[in-house]
Amino acid sequence: MSLVTTHVLDTAAGRPARGVPVRLEEPVDHGWRLVARARTDDDGRIRELGPDTLQPGVYRLVFDIETYQGPDAFFPEAVVCFRIADGTAHHHVPLLLSPFAYSTYRGS
Predict the structure, then answer these.
(1) What residues contact residue 91 under an 8 Å CB cut-off, 6+ apart?
(2) I want to staple 78 with a disulfide (CB 3.0 to 4.6 A). Which of 63, 82, 90, 103 is the partner?
(3) 105 marked among binding-site residues
(4) Residue 68 counted as an annotated binding residue
(5) 108, part of any domain
(6) Is residue 42 part of a domain?
(7) 103: three-class secondary structure by DSSP
(8) Distance (Å, rounded) from C-alpha 46 to C-alpha 6?
(9) Collapsing DSSP states into helix, strand and coil, what is residue 70?
């Protein structure tokens, strides 16, 4: 199982957000490096995103909202930075999405 997973829910439509491209990135000198990428499935989930272990540190998920909501999306991207303290523990980072807002939390 992947160390990092996500779930995107379209709260305005009341359904999972299918087909959202998501990148997992780690910091490098003056920028970010791609660790993994995937798209949400029919249930809005990505169950396999990157390796089963990661070094402790700060990572980020970049959600391509424009691909899902279209070219007039108010937020073309949602970027969620989070810290991995235990590089072997599962980290579930969901995104709740609507046309003019998004939120996230540490899931289980």
Answers:
(1) 3, 4, 5, 82, 84, 106
(2) 63
(3) yes
(4) no
(5) no
(6) yes
(7) strand
(8) 5
(9) coil
